[in-house]
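In the design runs reported in the main text, the only information available to the sequence generator was the tokenized backbone. The following block is the verbatim input for one such run; it is reproduced so that readers can re-run the procedure and compare outputs position by position.
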């Protein structure tokens, strides 16, 4: 009886050892240690990605992120684009739907000044006069690139040109980030991604994700094309109700673009 129990215990130990060996082997394969042991150099992060990782670890540790989501009518975005094309000197290629939303965001930032602030490492607040926006850049390891600075007094044509030029520089991989961007905008509409939770990277206090349009019911229960605006913000300086009102202001600005603008 005792011998049988000992055999069962030893069998169980062998099973546990085999499972552990399989887990270790899988982990080694995952991180490339087997390749390294054969003499090949392991794959390393690029310098840009290493810089990005260090930047996030050092500067973003104190950020308290919170996320809100608001669906908007994609049809209203397209209508605003058509109005802007008719009322400005912009060309089709210079004014995409993302440009339209970026214009609406920059306008809302002048009404909600906490999206124009930077929370310094000593927890003091610095407010910029202008709207410092980081636009999504396709370059590998891009950090807050490219940057665009919007002035409240910018004529509509100038505002469109600033955003279009920044987007073009991103596509050409010639984008530079000379400014501290307090808010970043990223769009995955072209990739079909409808929802995501954007992360915050210092000195951002907010990051806005623009999702791909999808078919749903609007607020009046009518079939419509909608798109998600997902806003991640730093709760240390921005309260949830303030962030919610900011999203509502963006939607209203989209509805009014081409009808009114600060310097029109």
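Verbatim output:
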């Amino acid at each position: 009886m005792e011998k049988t129990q000992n055999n069962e215990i030893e069998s169980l130990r062998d099973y546990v050892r085999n499972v552990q060996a399989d887990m270790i082997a899988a982990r080694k394969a995952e991180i490339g240690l087997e390749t390294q042991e054969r003499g090949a150099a392991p794959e390393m992060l690029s310098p840009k990605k290493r810089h990005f990782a260090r930047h996030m670890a050092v500067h973003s540790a104190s950020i308290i992120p919170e996320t809100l989501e608001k669906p908007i009518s994609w049809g209203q975005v397209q209508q605003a684009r058509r109005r802007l094309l008719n009322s400005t000197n912009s060309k089709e290629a210079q004014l995409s739907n993302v440009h339209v939303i970026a214009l609406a965001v920059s306008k809302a930032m002048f009404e909600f000044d906490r999206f124009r602030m930077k929370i310094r490492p000593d927890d003091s607040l610095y407010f910029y006069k202008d709207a410092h926006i980081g636009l999504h850049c396709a370059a590998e390891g891009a950090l807050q690139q490219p940057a665009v600075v919007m002035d409240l007094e910018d004529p509509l044509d100038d505002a469109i040109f600033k955003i279009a030029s920044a987007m073009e520089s991103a596509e050409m991989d010639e984008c530079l980030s000379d400014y501290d961007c307090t808010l970043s905008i990223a769009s995955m509409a072209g990739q079909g991604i409808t929802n995501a939770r954007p992360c915050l990277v210092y000195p951002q206090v907010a990051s806005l994700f623009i999702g791909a349009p999808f078919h749903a019911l609007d607020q009046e229960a009518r079939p419509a094309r909608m798109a998600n605006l997902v806003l991640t913000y730093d709760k240390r300086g921005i309260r949830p109700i303030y962030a919610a009102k900011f999203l509502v202001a963006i939607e209203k600005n989209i509805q009014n673009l081409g009808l009114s603008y600060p310097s029109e």
